[in-house]
């Protein structure tokens, strides 16, 4: 059976009892000088975003929509050995040589030998392809591993189109986690290949040091474009972590209308309603119809917390708005005729909060009234933003929480814990 490794990315992994324990994120191979690479196993991401190693000898079956293993899986954090490579993360998009011509690696295929060993036997390449706009030209071939040369070379610009294709359907948080486990050079190549909006979504899911590292390797114009594509509150948080001179330079390169909401957020202390809020909630005038409000809620770029309610205000409808009138919850909107006006569905029992309200008070407010979001109104009665429950969680969680997958549940680094500390899941085989 021949399996192309890029197609394994994101495949659910099940234990012998049929319970899903995670998803495949990569394939670990050992490079050998004169022989096809040997497959050591799979990198599996289990909750909470921890990458562990599943030996290929434990894999019982690989199907189009499932990987089933036998025995148990060790939950110790995955550490790549010096002789190993990540087939998806490091080998796709490499420039290699085929028959004296330049080619780009599109995918790798692994097969099981008669002795039960798994090897990388085939390479899918595009020969004669160019970079950038010309990358789709050329001849696509699947050839034996022995016919291809150049896998051991260090390349200045590897590209990332095929790696990104393998992660095309993944959520930004999952792609962010994949980036964190790539070498710095490869991480920069992937970031450079992402579209501004996708990179902005991914940056929002990364720890601060990784955000800064990626942004600092982009040219200033591109970095400003990516910041503009981020949610204003996330962009403001990132700018506060940059050296002041760099932050000011990036703000200066942003379009004034894109920089304005970020600058407003920077005026508030970090752990206040103003410092946490999003400045782009769903705002409609009272004469809008229920149908128009539901169309706004259905937008794919709106998070569930932001889509929980529509904020009603006098024009202008961008923050800071005209006079704030109230909120219309999506459940109420669903019960109203589509032709009715949003102004008739306002819930006046929800009092807005002020931008300088501290984090503990904001948390207590949301908990007391069982809310997932709260309007933030300034002293002039204008809506300036909304605080959502995910904004609050980001500030309540301890620093570095996005990196917690690198530690054992008790806080001990997995790489330093003894063999007896390693936990396993899954039934017997």
TrEMBL record:
* Pfam families in alphabetical order: CBS (PF00571), MgtE_N (PF03448), PRC (PF05239), SH3_actinomycetes (PF26205)
Q: Residue ranges under compositional bias (Basic and acidic residues)?
A: 401-410
| CDD domains registered for this protein in UniProt | CBS_pair_Mg_transporter
**CBS domain location, by residue?**
346-406
Q: What keywords appear on the UniProt entry?
A: CBS domain
Biased segments, Low complexity type: 418-429
SUPFAM superfamilies from the UniProt entry: CBS-domain pair, MgtE N-terminal domain-like, PRC-barrel domain
User: Which Gene3D superfamilies does its entry note?
Assistant: CBS-domain, MgtE N-terminal domain-like
Stretch list, region Disordered: 399-429
Top-rank lineage group of the source organism = Bacteria
Name-wise, this protein is Magnesium transporter MgtE N-terminal domain-containing protein
Species whose genome carries this gene:
Sphaerisporangium dianthi
Taxonomic lineage is: Bacteria, Bacillati, Actinomycetota, Actinomycetes, Streptosporangiales
């Amino acid at each position: 059976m021949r399996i192309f490794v890029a197609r394994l990315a994101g495949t659910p992994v099940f234990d012998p009892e049929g319970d899903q324990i995670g998803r495949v994120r990569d394939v670990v191979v050992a490079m050998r000088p004169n022989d096809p690479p040997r497959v050591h196993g799979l990198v599996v991401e289990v909750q909470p975003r921890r990458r562990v190693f599943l030996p290929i000898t434990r894999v019982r079956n690989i199907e189009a929509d499932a990987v089933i293993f036998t025995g148990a899986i060790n939950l110790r954090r995955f550490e790549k050995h010096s002789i190993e490579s990540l087939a998806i993360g490091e080998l796709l998009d490499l420039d290699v040589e085929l028959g004296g011509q330049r080619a780009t690696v599109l995918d790798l295929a692994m097969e099981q030998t008669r002795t039960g060993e798994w090897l990388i036997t085939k390479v899918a390449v595009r020969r004669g392809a160019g970079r950038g706009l010309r990358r789709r030209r050329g001849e696509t071939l699947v050839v034996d591993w022995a016919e291809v040369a150049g896998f051991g070379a260090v390349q200045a610009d590897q590209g990332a189109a095929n790696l990104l294709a393998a992660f095309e359907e993944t959520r930004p948080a999952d792609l962010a986690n994949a980036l964190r486990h790539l070498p710095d050079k490869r991480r920069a190549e992937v970031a450079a290949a992402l579209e501004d909006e996708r990179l902005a979504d991914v940056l929002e899911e990364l720890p601060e040091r990784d955000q800064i590292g990626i942004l600092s390797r982009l040219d200033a114009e591109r970095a400003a474009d990516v910041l503009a594509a981020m949610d204003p509150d996330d962009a403001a948080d990132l700018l506060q972590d940059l050296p002041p001179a760099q932050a000011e330079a990036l703000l200066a390169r942003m379009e004034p209308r894109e920089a304005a909401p970020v600058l407003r957020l920077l005026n508030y202390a970090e752990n206040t309603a103003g410092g946490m809020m999003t400045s782009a909630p769903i705002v409609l005038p009272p004469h809008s119809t229920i149908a128009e409000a539901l169309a706004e809620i259905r937008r794919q770029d709106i998070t569930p917390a932001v889509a929980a309610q529509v904020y009603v205000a006098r024009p202008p409808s961008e923050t800071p708005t005209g006079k704030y009138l109230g909120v219309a919850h999506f459940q109420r909107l669903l019960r109203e005729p589509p032709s009715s006006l949003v102004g008739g569905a306002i819930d006046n029992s929800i009092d807005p909060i002020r931008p300088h309200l501290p984090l503990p008070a904001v948390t207590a407010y949301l908990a007391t009234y069982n809310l997932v979001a709260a309007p933030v109104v300034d002293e002039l009665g204008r809506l300036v933003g909304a605080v959502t429950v995910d904004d609050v969680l980001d500030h309540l969680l301890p620093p570095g929480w996005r990196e917690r997958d690198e530690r054992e549940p008790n806080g001990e680094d997995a790489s330093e814990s003894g063999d007896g500390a390693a936990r396993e899941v899954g039934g017997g085989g």
